[in-house]
Amino acid sequence: MSLRQYRRLAFEAVALLLLVGFGLAQPRAADLPKELHIGFQKSSVNLTLLKQRKALEQRLPNVKVTWFEFNAGPQMLEALSVGSIDFAMTGDTPPIFAQAAGSQLVYVGAEPAKPDNSAVLVRQDSPIRSVAELKGKKIALQKGSSAHYLAVRALQQAGIQWNEITPVYLAPADARAAFERGSVDAWVIWDPYWAAIERSAAPRALVTSRGMVSNHTFYLASRAYADKYPNIIHVLFEELTRSDQLVQQQRSEAVRIVAESIGLDQATTELYLARRPRSPVGYLTNAMLEEQQVIADTFHKQNLIPKPIRVKDVFWQPSTQGAQLSAAN
After folding, report:
1. CA dihedral defined by 111, 316, 234, 252, rounded to 10 degrees?
2. DSSP string covering 67-87, please?
3. Which of 14, 80, 156, 203 is most buried, judging by how many CB atoms fall within 10 Å of its CB?
């Protein structure tokens, strides 16, 4: 068993213990906010299912739950930083850029790595056959997203410096349009956008995230919110993990719900979910924090964030959870 597989199994075991341990406990009304604003995006499978199941509304009948959809993680964390939402889900890179910009957010939870959910794409008719041939080319990506880090790592591995390409920073929908009309030479993107373009235009993947980046999913909140309402975080983890169980145990139903919710056909959604491993939600492990620090250091060395940061400074850990962190490492 590889170290990564061991860490995944350990993380899943801790997430299961969390689910069983809290046992659908009902928080006291005095410990709850009047409202809960949740940010999500098309890649938020667990949140999408949670929204459609209305499980939070049932668990928290005295809390008004409102959902806000965003194009990508960076936009979501901007909303979190100004208090427009209370809870957010992103890939690995948006929290790095947000922390470097001074946002008052904390990591409250995570899902295991998703090593197969992103790629560096070129059009089917492109003469480009390797990442090394991207030197001097235009590459579309969402700035500050997980795709940004994959682009940096792929170029590094090919011996190309960041200043030797022309990044074209676009949100996923705009990036797809630019890619399809040939305004850019390559597109670095994650699922489900990858699955959608793969089924419609059959682009070639020069490289995927497998073996290149881990692609963890993180859940974030403001420190003040997490400290004041830890019971809300616990309930969210329970219900998000139950959403993942639906994906694993009732795949066809999960495909139907996700497809209808994010506006994709079921075949595309099936391809998307096939690349997604089991994704229970639990607290961060030390290994995850170390990987995040590597990402932060990489972006600082490339002068892509303005200052060095310490990821551990924005790690939230409730006092009742201390043993679980060490148990998952």
Report:
1. -10
2. EEE-SSHHHHHHHHHTTS-SE
3. 80
How far is C-alpha 289 from the chain's CA centre?
15
Residue-wise burial string across 104-140, b where 16 or more C-beta atoms lie within 10 A, e elsewhere: ebbbbbbbbbbbbbbbbbbbeebebeebebbeebebb
Reference 8, options 316, 214, 146; nearest CA is 214
Confidence grade of residue 319 (pLDDT, cut at 50, 70, 90) = low
3-state SS assignment for residue 251: helix
Give yes or no for residue 91 having a pLDDT over 50: yes
Instruction: Tell me the two tokens of residue 239.
Output: 């219900």
For residues 262 and 315, membership in a common domain is answered with: yes
Q: Across the strands, what pairs with 69?
A: 40
Q: What is the pLDDT of residue 22?
A: 46
User: CA-CA distance, 43 to 231, in Å (whole number)?
Assistant: 25
Please list, in sequence order, all residues whose beta carbon lies within 8 angstroms of the beta carbon of residue 140, skipping any fewer than 6 positions away. Answer: 168, 170, 175, 178, 179, 184, 186, 187, 188
Closest by CA to 44, choosing from 84, 2, 88, is: 88
- The answer to whether residues 249 and 146 belong to one domain is no
Domain that holds residue 154: 118-208
Q: Is the pTM of this model over 0.90?
A: no
pLDDT for 132 equals 98
Rounded CA-CA distance 131/209 in Å is 13
Q: pLDDT tens, 131-173? A: 999 999 999 999 999 999 999 999 999 999 999 999 999 999 9
Asked if residues 68 and 37 have their Cβ atoms less than 8 Å apart, the reply is yes
Are residues 28 and 109 both part of a single domain? Answer: yes
> Torsions phi, psi of 203, nearest 5?
-70, 165
Give the CATH number for residue 76: 3.40.190.10
